[in-house]
Amino acid sequence: MAPKKFIAPLVVLLIVFITVGDQYKFLPDSARTASYKARMFVIGLWPEWLKPKNQNEQREQEIEQLGQ
After folding, report:
1. Which of 7, 27, 28, 35 would staple 22 via disulfide (CB 3.0–4.6 Å)?
2. What residues have CB less than 8 Å from 34, skipping those under 6 apart?
3. How far apart are CA 56 and CA 20, in angstroms?
4. CA distances from 67 to 24, 58, 59 (A)
5. 65: helix, coil or strand?
6. Which helix (H) or strand (E) covers residue 15, if one does?
7. Of 15, 25, 61, nearest to 7 (Cα)?
């Protein structure tokens, strides 16, 4: 088989490993830890301004102030 045929399945396996690899109990602890750290690294690459904000934060603070 040509090396190009291995790229797509390898990418799919890598994505599956990063997203849910730490939930599989049959993997050794070091592999589960690597999956978790890789996911946190990928999430850390996401720009801060693209992360969702809590739109209700100000409203929640106002409700807490009313209760005091």
Report:
1. 35
2. 21
3. 30
4. 45, 15, 13
5. helix
6. helix 4-20
7. 15
Q: Which position has the token pair 């049959």?
A: 26
Residue 51: pLDDT above 80? no
Q: Tell me how far the alpha carbon of residue 11 is from its chain's centroid.
A: 16
CA distance 18 to 10: 12
Q: What is the pLDDT of residues 17-50, one digit of tens each?
A: 888 888 888 888 999 999 999 999 988 888 877 7
Phi, psi of 24 (to 5 degrees): -85, 115
Q: Which two tokens stand for residue 42?
A: 């990928």
CA-to-CA separations, 26 to 21, 45, 58, in angstroms, rounded: 10, 29, 44
Residue type, 61: Q
